[in-house]
TrEMBL record:
Coarse class of the protein's main subcellular location: cytoplasm
CDD domains the UniProt entry points to: AGPR_1_C, AGPR_1_N
Active site, renumbered: C149
Xref: SUPFAM superfamilies: Glyceraldehyde-3-phosphate dehydrogenase-like, C-terminal domain, NAD(P)-binding Rossmann-fold domains
Biological role stated in the UniProt entry: Catalyzes the NADPH-dependent reduction of N-acetyl-5-glutamyl phosphate to yield N-acetyl-L-glutamate 5-semialdehyde.
Catalytic activity: N-acetyl-L-glutamate 5-semialdehyde + phosphate + NADP(+) = N-acetyl-L-glutamyl 5-phosphate + NADPH + H(+)
Keyword NADP on entry: yes
EC number(s) reported in the record: 1.2.1.38
Full protein name: N-acetyl-gamma-glutamyl-phosphate reductase
Entry keyword set: Amino-acid biosynthesis, Arginine biosynthesis, Cytoplasm, NADP, Oxidoreductase
UniProt key word Lipid biosynthesis: no
Subcellular localization: Cytoplasm
Species of provenance: Oxalicibacterium faecigallinarum
Cellular component terms (Gene Ontology): cytoplasm
Length: 349
């Protein structure tokens, strides 16, 4: 059994890791930290886990993380990079759900996250945890930077088009919406029910941390210079993410060939569903599952002469956008079948 520790077990991605790992056949949960809830049984805070998780939170200094085989950091940025060296030295693998090991460009990390990078040498060894685009590196990695939720949708949506060289890489547009759990469980006025409920707004329009991450990774897929306009929105759902991606086609390609690009790219991917051309995927078709769904459109009646491709991408921000993706990485890192513990059917209605 793989001994698993979770730092930050009281947050939304932490409890989602607990939900997924509680039924994972090859995992034993051995340590779960909380600075505030030291000693509280996990099932007392999360009754959904009664009978499934029978350990208690412990403060990070008491948790015996070096005795684990892998530690997930479901914490804000800055936490994993302070502890990664000690864990790696003890032979423990690290999967960080925050941004400490996502961006290879340290100057960019420091600009967007407003802190010095604590372990640039380890960063060089880290694998970016988007399995569909980086499987081999993850398999042999000791440290993984799990992708951001929006960047997962943008990369999987644009990748087949960029790799095929059929779009103008310099003018990509991503119009993305996230459920409120994307902001985490900490108390904030903007995510109060009476602020976020029955309301809809954009945020971070002039600049968002997920832009540099997405640009860095998309740039690996094409020789062209990538340009991205990314507009995130907060939508009054608990879970779910819907990204509408736009790109201008630069090559003659018919709809069937466009569709085939995506079907071929994801033919063997258990967690990417390419829906029939012209479909309208719904966030609820992925709720509580690790599935991400994609559908293509190409409007012709709007004066664009059909030279714009629209890619709709939906996922559950807490699963494929965070904790499910992290478990998918863990499975690879430990030589397990990639789908172990992740084959939940989405919850509907
Ligand atoms: N929510 C999403 O949809 C989503 C998607 C992708 C990635 N992420 C990323 O995943 C990470 C966790 O997100 P979240 O939404 O789960 O956040 P959250 O709900 O705010 O939870 C944060 C957790 O980290 C712990 N924590 C905070 N500061 C800590 C510190 N200095 N040392 C140790 N533990 C600390 C907190 O527990 P205590 O205060 O009890 O210690 C809590 O359990 C973030 O980096 C986020 O950007 C989130």
């Amino acid at each position: 059994m793989i001994k698993v520790g979770i730092v930050g077990g009281t947050g939304y991605t932490g409890v989602e890791l607990l939900r997924l790992l509680a039924t994972h056949s090859d995992v034993e949960l051995t340590a779960i930290t909380s600075r505030k809830e030291d000693g509280m049984p996990v099932s007392e805070m999360f009754p959904s886990l009664r009978g499934r998780v029978d350990i208690a939170f412990s403060s990070p200094d008491k948790a015996r993380l070096t005795e684990c085989d892998v530690v997930f950091f479901a914490t804000p940025h800055g936490v994993a990079m302070a502890q990664a060296a000690e864990l790696l030295a003890a032979g423990v693998k690290v999967i960080d759900l925050a941004a400490d090991f996502r961006l290879q460009d340290i100057a960019s990390f420091e600009k967007w996250y407003k802190m010095p990078h604590g372990c640039p040498d380890l960063l060089k060894e880290a694998a970016y945890g988007l399995v569909e685009l980086n499987r081999d590196a993850i398999r042999s990695a000791k440290i993984v930077g799990n992708p951001g939720c929006y960047p997962t949708t943008m990369q999987l949506g644009f990748a087949p088009l960029l790799k095929a060289g059929v779009i103008d890489a310099g003018h990509l547009i991503a119009d993305c919406k996230s459920g409120v759990s994307g902001a985490g469980r900490k108390a904030e006025v903007a995510t109060l029910f009476s602020e976020a409920g029955d309301n809809f707004k954009a945020y971070g329009v002039s600049g968002h941390r997920h832009s540099p991450e997405t640009l860095e990774r998309l740039s690996l897929l094409t020789k062209e210079k990538v340009g991205l306009i990314f507009t995130p929105h907060l939508t009054p759902m608990i879970r779910g993410m819907h990204s509408t991606l736009y790109a201008r086609l630069t090559k003659e390609i018919d709809n069937a060939a466009l569709q085939k690009l995506f079907e071929d790219a994801y033919a063997n991917e258990p967690f990417v569903d390419v829906m029939p051309f012209g479909s309208h995927p719904e966030t609820r078709s992925t709720r509580a599952s690790n599935m991400l769904r994609i559908a293509l459109h190409r409007p012709t009646e709007n004066g664009t002469a059909g030279d714009t491709v629209i890619v709709l991408v939906v996922q559950d921000n807490l699963v494929k956008g965070a904790s499910g993706q992290a478990v998918q990485c863990m499975n690879l890192m430990f030589g397990l079948s990639e789908t172990t513990g992740l084959l939940h059917v989405p919850v509907l209605p």
